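Hello,

Our lab assistant flagged a job as stuck in the queue for most of the afternoon. It eventually completed. Since we weren't sure the result was trustworthy after the delay, we are filing this so someone can double-check. Below is the sequence as submitted and the structure that was eventually returned. Let us know if re-running is recommended.
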Amino acid sequence: MTEDDLLPLSALQHLLFCERQCALIHLEQVWVENSLTVEGRHLHEQADSGVQESRGDLRIARALPLRSLRLGLSGRSDVVEFHRIGESSWRPFPVEYKRGRPKSHRADEVQLCAQALCLEEMLETSVPAGALFYGQTRRRLDVAFDAELRLLTEETADRLQRLIASGITPAPVHEPKCDQCSLLPVCMPAAPAGSARQYLDRFLRAAQQAGVD
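-- returned structure --
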């Protein structure tokens, strides 16, 4: 896979949240802001300043470019801490910033693990763990990149490649999580069942019965 074929790391999180949302964003190039996305963007802007720091045995890189030709992914980290583990050796520790609080699903962990896999491929080193920082709780959640999470991340990257290669946006299905999605007005998961023709016919019949021209 070449650099031009790489898909955004963020698409993994979109895919695990909702395949239709992922396709709308990354196939149809649709994006709508709401208060939650604005809050998340502001949180990332603070982390993505690009300012680098060095404090003794700790170096901090912000907005570090990442890519994996094996997984077909690229993007930028929020923060990667490099911890000294020897005279001239440093261990990367990725930190991803998220608005809200820890979730019941593993989408955030998969996105973070994908960053670790990128770092391992780029730097030819081991990245055993990282952390998620949540804006609502103002706390870090440590994440170990164990075999189960690595496999889930690789499978998700493969699903993403197949979805984008298909060029097909999945049909809408209304779920409770839809109410938190900024694409709700565009996605219309609660639209009437049946084809557009059936919907239009029903609408016209109802209008005629009501005496509307």
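-- support follow-up --
The delay was a queue issue, not a problem with the job. The result is valid. The longest strand covers residues 90-98. The chain has a mean pLDDT of 85.
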